[in-house]
Write a structure and sequence with these properties.
The chain is built from four helices and 30 strands. The strands form four sheets. The chain has a 15-stranded antiparallel β-sheet that branches. Strands 18, 19, 20, 21, 22, 25, 26, 27, 28, 29 and 30 form an eleven-stranded antiparallel β-sheet that branches. Strands 2-12 form a two-stranded antiparallel ribbon. It starts with a helix and ends with a strand. It has a single domain, classed as AttH-like fold (Beta Barrel), CATH 2.40.370.10. By secondary structure, it is mainly beta.
């Protein structure tokens, strides 16, 4: 009966019934705190059922310019597949953000599923599995020639980075998966008609974060809220991704993240917490916009902890998701009562108010850095 209810809600777009906590199997409950990514872990899954799969790169230039480059692979009920390239540069030319969202024609994968090609675009993973070369001439507004090479090992929480949805764990009806490179060196450029952005060169590299994620079900069924932060300091990179399920899955919080330095993973796991001590109601959306934040990471044995807290700074953007996304993806959430997705984005570079405190054994270090944070409200 639960399977039938879930299938009907996927098909006709209705809200799901309340299945209870037995229908959610968080990755944070797996016995392994984390596992190191291999090249095989970075393969595109390209599921044949309803899902959204994405690879996204957050880029910070030596001049503290912030951009993101993202591929979204989307399948609607196994009936239609689309592929989209999203490019954003915050405070483009000191004014409004540059935002491009372009459909990709003739997309395909290499046999090993590690590289995606489309007309005038390639997202290519190298033979060693430690660097992506991103080239795009899809839109003259943003010509991309970037290399992102991880420094610390990549990781996923648990053995596979995956939270399962469904009352039968052996036959789940949905999944959520995240895999991370928390610290990477960036070289190359994004050229716009008015400016060329240099995101790094040999001897003066930029900083990057890479995330490979899958929502193997309708987005508004998988999560009602999201929180994300990456904080880059001279010595450390801290990253956290949290989602809260709708009441249909007992409003369960799943938080994954880690802290790395230039060469190693200092901590990765699910023993993390994010809170917003100060908030305000946004009169335009009625969502509660964060003003300050506190993020904590802590190993279960207490030997490692990290805290990032302070004002988030001026909001850089408020994204009306249904306004920006393609119509075919919009169909995944359209018509559902209570679904009103907005993303609040913060990108202070550098942010002198936020301080990362890292305690590793008997050693304590405090550093300022560059923050990119999001608070997402869906339903």
């Amino acid at each position: 009966m639960n399977w039938l209810k879930s299938t009907l809600s996927y098909t006709v777009g209705t809200a799901e019934p309340e299945y209870g906590p037995e229908a959610i199997h968080p990755v944070t409950a797996q016995p392994e705190p984390y596992s190191v990514l291999t090249k095989d872990d970075l393969k595109w899954k390209a599921m044949q059922s309803t899902n959204v799969e994405t690879q996204i790169f957050y880029l910070i230039s030596p001049a503290n310019e912030v951009a993101s480059v993202q591929i979204i692979y989307n399948n609607v009920a196994g009936l239609m597949v689309t592929c989209q390239l999203n490019v954003k540069i915050w405070n483009h030319n000191g004014k409004e953000h540059l935002w491009n969202s372009d459909p990709l024609e003739n997309h395909c994968f290499t046999e090993d599923m590690n590289t995606l090609f489309a007309d005038n675009l390639s997202f290519a993973l190298n033979a060693d599995g430690d660097a992506y070369e991103i080239k795009s001439a899809r839109n003259e507004e943003a010509l991309i020639d970037i290399v992102v090479k991880r420094t610390a090992p990549g990781f996923q929480v648990g053995k596979d980075g995956t939270t399962l949805y469904g009352t039968d764990r052996a036959n789940p009806w949905g999944e959520m998966r995240h895999r991370f490179w928390a610290r990477a060196a960036v070289t190359g450029t994004i050229r716009t008609p008015g400016k060329e952005y240099n995101f790094g060169s040999e001897g003066n590299v930029g900083r990057g974060v890479f995330i490979h994620a899958i929502q193997g079900m309708k987005p508004h069924h998988a999560a009602a809220r999201w929180n994300f932060v990456t904080f880059q300091t001279p010595s450390y990179s801290a990253l956290m991704m949290e989602f809260t399920t709708p009441p249909s899955y007992a409003s369960t919080r799943v938080n994954v993240g880690g802290v790395v330095n230039d060469t190693e993973i200092l901590y990765a796991g699910g023993n993390n917490v994010v809170t917003y001590p100060e908030t305000k109601e946004d009169p335009d959306t009625q969502w509660t916009e964060p003003i300050s934040a506190e993020y904590t990471w802590q190993s279960k044995d207490g030997q490692f902890s990290a805290t990032l807290k302070g004002p988030l700074g001026e909001r850089r953007d408020r994204v009306d998701v249904l306004h920006h996304i393609p119509g075919v993806i919009k169909s995944l959430v359209g018509g559902v009562v209570g679904t009103k997705p907005y993303i609040y984005q913060f990108a202070d570079v550098p942010n002198d108010s936020l301080i990362l405190t890292v305690k590793d054994g008997d050693k304590t270090v405090e550093e300022k850095g560059v923050v990119f944070a999001e608070a997402t409200f869906i339903s």
